[in-house]
Amino acid sequence: MEIELERKQNQLTKAQRELERVQQEVLQVTIETSMNRGLMRVRKLSSQISLCSLHRLIRYDTFSLNWIIPKKKP
Predict the structure, then answer these.
(1) 73 inside domain
(2) Is the pLDDT at 5 greater than 80, yes or no?
(3) Where are the annotated coiled coils located (predicted)?
(4) Has residue 69 been placed in a domain?
(5) What average pLDDT does the segment 50-73 reach?
(6) In the chain, which end has fewer C-beta atoms inside a 10 angstrom radius, N or C?
């Protein structure tokens, strides 16, 4: 009985590690894709995240300010 429990725990640990690895790969691909496709892709991707109304306002205002205020070129 204990041997089977240990075996199941090992399988669970392996599955959790595999899940973490896959999640990291997906995140990396998402970041790379966003960088390659530019700002509109990032905006579209981030708009899928649900935010409360306060955070939605902050995100929108910050995004708007980035377009209004000219950035100095180095």
Answers:
(1) no
(2) yes
(3) 5-32
(4) no
(5) 56
(6) C
Cα–Cα distance measured from residue 2 to residue 59, given in angstroms and rounded to the nearest whole number = 52
Other CB atoms within 10 A of residue 59 CB:
14
Q: What percentage of residues in the chain have a pLDDT greater than 90? A: 0
Tokens of residue 32, six digits: 């790379």
Rounded to whole angstroms, the Cα distance separating 66 from 68 reads: 6
Q: What is the DSSP string of 51-63?
A: --HHHHHHHHHHH
CA distances from 66 to 1, 30, 42, 59, 60 (A): 62, 23, 14, 11, 10
Residue with tokens 């981030």: 46
In a domain, 13, yes or no: yes
Burial class (CB in 10 A: 0-12, 13-18, 19+), 42: middle
